[in-house]
Amino acid sequence: KTIDLDILTTAFAGIETIADPAQVAKLSQDYHTFSPVLVPKLEGKVGDIVVRPANEEEVLKVAAICAKYRVPVTVRGAGTGNYGQCVPLHGGVIVDMTRMDQIVWVKPGVARVEAGVKLAALDKQAREIGWEMRMTPSTYRTATIGGFIAGGSGGIGSIQYGLLGDRGNLLALQVVTLEDEPRVIKLRGDDVQKVNHAWGINGIITQLEIPLGPAYPWAEVIVTFEDFMAAAKFGQTLGNADGMIKKLIAIFASPIPQYFHALQQYIPEGVHSAFLMVAEPSLESLPGLVQQYGGQISYEKPAQEAGKGPHLAEFAWNHTTLHARTVDTSITYLQSMFPADTNLQLVEHMYHYFGDEVMMHLEFFRANGKVTVGGLQLVRYTTEERLNEIIRYHEKQGVQIANPHTYIIEDGGRKVIDPEQLKFKEMVDPYGLMNPGKSKVLQLKIKS
Ligand code: FAD
Fold first, then answer.
1. Which ligand 1 atom sits nearest the alpha carbon of residue 205?
2. Is 148 a pocket residue for ligand 1 (Cβ < 6 Å)?
């Protein structure tokens, strides 16, 4: 269906819009560029106009206009998603939420924010009363809370608190529907799961209540190891050490640390490394553990200097891929979850089996009460066929892969969309306007 831009522009009068094609094209992008498979598939996909609501009232107006003219709607925060989640497949209106950046309130243990608030901004304000975000993606400086909840999975802090989808990591939210007469729906308790990680297909999130954790002074530490499996086992043991408070345990096999230019002097060529964020009171217990695994502490930055120099969090999670790609653009990545096994046998198997083609990057996090090892392995990409072969091999051996090389929700980490989310979708988006084309079951529904 062709979209009459004049009609839309007139209808949006009074609300900030961007129609300049170059800017619209820019705001139709995200970081799917990490995937050589997604790039050609999403090339040239752009919206028709960007609208930037300043408050919920304006979101309601935008929703009414889009429903009236049956225009596709792609909501975006900062556009740092990795799977083309906010690339519009069928043009239409891009709803940029970044002007809605009010922190409504912060109380001990919980904050209420508008969806466009940047994670770092909330963290800063929460710290003033001794609290902080429980977990942030490594993009915390730019990413929005709405985008993290709708498109992210976890990150720095997940070693303590688990993943975003875990019960308790999102307390409440409200969404604007895409009905003829849009409404604000408020969800609390388990009902929040109807919108959690829904990739912007289940209503426009306007506000959220996010639980906070106590703010610790976080020291940053690099430990180097001659042996990769010693580094991995050290990570698992530190993860399991419940008395030690930590926020990050990332393990990098050689040559990955060589991609981190700013840290080169702390990581000699050929060694493997662990990047850690540990609460300062727990630091004294660290050297003993490091020694037990034959490691060496090569860098230690006290919490007081957190604002100075490189921040280790910005080398971990998917920032590792970012740094590697600035050196070699043929590198891409996997997202995987290894079965709980304290001997890390499958990690060891994959490490040797693929050698330099799949470079090991491990992130430890909590899942269902257990410290689990995830992989964001770096892959030296050759062909899509080979990439799929690598993925299939992992799956056959029992490693779960959340494929980052697809923009279809069910083909990624989700596998199936929760029936409750689907029921909610039918109610809030009766015309199927929200981020169309991103879900298999919804595509089938629209066709039938
Ligand atoms: P966007 O990319 O703008 O949007 C993401 C999804 O949410 C889209 O589907 C969009 O439609 C939807 N959405 C956005 N706002 C709303 C709203 N208000 N209402 C409804 N739907 C909405 N992710 C992690 O989980 N952990 C990581 O550690 C991590 N590291 C990363 C490192 C790099 C270098 C990069 C490029 C990405 C990384 N990501 C990571 C992915 C991404 O940065 C995060 O998920 C981030 O939180 C997304 O926020 P955003 O504001 O950029 O969302």
1. 19
2. yes
* CATH architecture of the region 103-214: 2-Layer Sandwich (3.30)
Which string of DSSP letters, residue by residue, matches 396-425? HHT-EE--SS---GGGTT-SS--HHHHHHH
Interval between CA 384 and ligand 1 midpoint (Å)? 25
Longest Cα pair distance anywhere in the chain, in angstroms? 69
What would the CATH number be for the domain defined by 5-96? 3.30.43.10
Instruction: Answer whether 151 contacts ligand 1 (Cβ < 6 A).
Output: yes
103-214 and 218-401 in the same fold: no
Mean pLDDT of 226-251: 98
Q: Is the CB of 115 under 6 A from ligand 1?
A: yes
Q: Which two tokens stand for residue 22?
A: 């170059």
Distance 270 CA to ligand 1 centre (A): 33
The domain 218-401 belongs to what CATH superfamily?
Answer: FAD-linked oxidase, cap domain/gating helix (3.40.462.40)
pLDDT in tens, 38-62: 999 999 999 999 999 999 999 999 9
For 333-347, b/e burial (b = at least 16 CB within 10 A) is bbbbbbeeeeebebb
Amino acid at 248: L
Whether complex ipTM tops 0.90: yes
Does ligand 1 lie within 6 Å of residue 146's CB atom? yes
Q: Span 377-387, mean pLDDT?
A: 98
In the reported structure, the alpha carbon of residue 294 is separated from the centroid of ligand 1 by a whole-number distance in angstroms of: 38
C-beta separation of 251 from 199 below 8 A: no
Q: Identity (one letter) of the amino acid at 447?
A: K
Ligand 1 center from residue 237 Cα (angstroms): 30
| CB of 196 sitting under 6 A from ligand 1 | no
CA–centroid distance for 63 within its chain? 26
Q: How many CA atoms lie within 13 A of 253 on its CB side?
A: 23
Q: Residue ranges of the domains in the chain? A: 5-96, 103-214, 218-401
Task: Give distance in angstroms: CA of 340 to centre of ligand 1.
Answer: 27
For 192-222, write each residue's pLDDT tens digit.
Answer: 999 988 899 999 999 999 999 999 999 999 9
Euclidean distance between CA atoms 320 and 159, whole angstroms:
17
Q: Which ligand 1 atom is the nearest neighbour of the CA of 144?
A: 51
Q: Atom 23 (ligand 1): residue with closest C-alpha?
A: 152
Centre of ligand 1 to C-alpha 13, Å, is: 29
Cβ contacts of 136 within 8 Å, gap of 6 or more: 119, 120, 123, 143, 148, 155, 156, 157, 313
At 406, which amino acid appears?
T
